[in-house]
Known about the structure:
B: 78% helix
Amino acid sequence: xxxxxxxxxxxxxxxxxxxxxxxxxxxxxxxxxxxxxxxxxxxxxxxxxxxxxxxxxxxxxxxxxxxxxxxxxxxxxxxxxxxxxxxxxxxxxxxxxxxxxxxxxxxxxxxxxxxxxxxxxxxxxxxxxxxxxxxxxxxxxxxxxxxxxxxxxxxxxxxxxxxxxxxxxxxxxxxxxxxxxxxxxxxxxxxxxxxxxxxxxxxxxxxxxxxxxxxxxxxxxxxxxxxxxxxxxxxxxxxxxxxxxxxxxxxxxxxxxxxxxxxxxxxxxxxxxxxxxxxxxxxxxxxxxxxxxxxxxxxxxxxxxxxx
Amino acid sequence: xxxxxxxxxxxxxxxxxxxxxxxxxxxxxxxxxxxxxxxxxxxxxxxxxxxxxxxxxxxxxxxxxxxxxxxxxxxxxxxxxxxxxxxxxxxxxxxxxxxxxxxxxxxxxxxxxxxxxxxxxxxxxxxxxxxxxxxxxxxxxxxxxxxxxxxxxxxxxxxxxxxxxxxxxxxxxxxxxxxxxxxxxxxxxxxxxxxxxxxxxxxxxxxxxxxxxxxxxxxxxxxxxxxxxxxxxxxxxxxxxxxxxxxxxxxxxxxxxxxxxxxxxxxxxxxxxxxxxxxxxxxxxxxxxxxxxxxxxxxxxxxxxxxxxxxxxxxxxxxxxx
Amino acid sequence: xxxxxxxxxxxxxxxxxxxxxxxxxxxxxxxxxxxxxxxxxxxxxxxxxxxxxxxxxxxxxxxxxxxxxxxxxxxxxxxxxxxxxxxxxxxxxxxxxxxxxxxxxxxxxxxxxxxxxxxxxxxxxxxxxxxxxxxxxxxxxxxxxxxxxxxxxxxxxxxxxxxxxxxxxxxxxxxxxxxxxxxxxxxxxxxxxxxxxxxxxxxxxxxxxxxxxxxxxxxxxxxxxxxxxxxxxxxxxxxxxxxxxxxxxxxxxxxxxxxxxxxxxxxxxxxxxxxxxxxxxxxxxxxxxxxxxxxxxxxxxxxxxxxxxxxxxxxxxxxxxx
Lengths: 308, 322, 322
């Protein structure tokens, strides 16, 4: 336990706050480092992100074009020339894997940002403003929660044009209720704490209270929730693309699986066509889940106490 | 007191249903200005038929009037005709209903039973080999896209080993009936059911385990032990009934997920259910069918939620105002 | 034969952060029909002793010394014998009745369960007996069909008392039975306990941090601090003329009725109870003691006889100027 020395009077409040933040961050790093699975998850995520970013350099885009692959062997097993083999049009599966990761990761992240943005707005408004706003917003949220998300996403995607941004929109619009509920609960917990009342009694404005008291306490939960929401977004994008609702011009892991299935890769036992994309999804989703769970455990004080 | 509880839950469900109907209606109308095109696309209808449809759906009225026409027609059971087959949508749905009920029913029951039982043992013997093993297993199945799992099982158990058919409801051109027909159907259903069950077992296991862990620290378990009950009885009569409550709440939500999962899984296995019908409707696009399947799936989840809410109210005496 | 004998009882909790000695060498004997109070602040180990009597401590806890219930060593019993002995030889009335009762079971059933566990009566006979018990503690028999949350705090506490008596134990351990109750209800519950103790000739171990409660209900009083008994003797003597500085501090914390000055000058104890994982050297009380001398920080004093029937663990007893 640290002891504040008698010379603490020399510390300004700002410096003290910075010191405390630094210490909290250091503690966080130590605890995180101890969770080996979480570290493994982070490493995997970084690896995939790097791969997605350097895609143009490690895999020329021509590999994706059916026209340019016309001379390639069809349904070729993995070999030196084609590390993951070729598909029914002769295109390199490895290229599809590398380029597909870009769309899958991008949509996963963008959709999550949208989900969390909407969810936070609704959750904080409902929790903080209370009474009628809360009642109406929560009724609305419950309705959305009950509607099965995939049929809704399918219908939305079907009536809109097929594009990456529309997929992001669809996922964001169908996934926000869970986040909203969680954040509202946390806001309510914080609101009940006395210091919010005291701040108001001292004359603090609503925005001040939100900024200084509510947000800092809710932010860690939002962060943990974001990390856990990304895998859901990725899985949803994959399913939507597989069902033919994705962007027809862009390669994504879901699209690869759709094409593989439609081309009969299963009956042809062309495992190199449909295994990599699926394994990629599993790896990324698992990594995000492990990382997110560790984050949640460290940041959520309730879970920490119970030492689960 | 109980009546008020039931009443409020039913009222809530009806409100949600109304919301779904509104969303369903406006989604399709909002996107296109000329509903005629969407409703009658690419079909050869006589002018009288077109006129009748226009009247039925009140396409000449305002949006609100159209909505009420839509509402009335829906309640009467007229959901329009399928673009692809020209048959009434309700007929198409009726034919696709039973396979989905079979598949989703069996998968839900299996994943619940196995998931809950595993979750209880994992939580009761925390950190044991069983616990670690089953938690890891659940994390994996959670990360796997359900249809991809289906593809893998198909590739391995059907194409490679030949133990199961690659798809369909029964053997093509089958003339079996009675028990033989049922067995044939079950044989065909094995892989899709296995896929769906595996994909959703994890949810139940994790939530049951977590709920049991919450219960383990409760004081009334200590009292139960102090009375002289065996460990197994403490678990069975005191811990589990309390720990089961959150899981029951979850099952309604999970039902929505399983229904969603069934869509893609039915596609993989060519299982002729509502999911498959939805996929074909997307390809069309067959808007009346899409609208209808969306409505059907939403209603199923609303009803499931209502039943679960009522069940929960019955099981937990603290909730329904008793 | 004594109903309860604790010989050199030491209990150490094992946790990830190390061992925590909760009880250190406690000796206590309770004769049939005797009422003994155990007082001390939270964390001194008194609730641990209550759980230890019926072997309800977590598995990894290290228990040294002996706990003899009716002459039998509780920690040497086979599981079957232990379960038979629980509730029939000794029963516990826990605190916080809302959490000690199973929230989804009717209170009558929870008593029936105990009765049927230890005797071979039918369910209706058990039901009759539990209704009688409820009436005896002042709860109308119809309330046996209630759930715990439907009863008031005082009623729940009475249910726990009825439950504790259901198998005719010789020893009743009351662990803070009146904490969390308001004063009026407290008095009623205490009176009830005293009545039942007289009627059934029960031996009672009354555990609490509230000294005032003990003097009216118990013949003997033992004061615990940091896992040890630091004073024991007849309750009136211990409260009215305490020897150990800690007992003196506890007794003084209560204002004398009728003396306005004592209310103006509360003479409670300074400081906080020690952390069991990190006890001070020598006598654990010395940092808070107003009579501490040099030797107190190095020598740990054990209980010694101060006068016939009274013991205290203080150097001043040895030197004769307690």
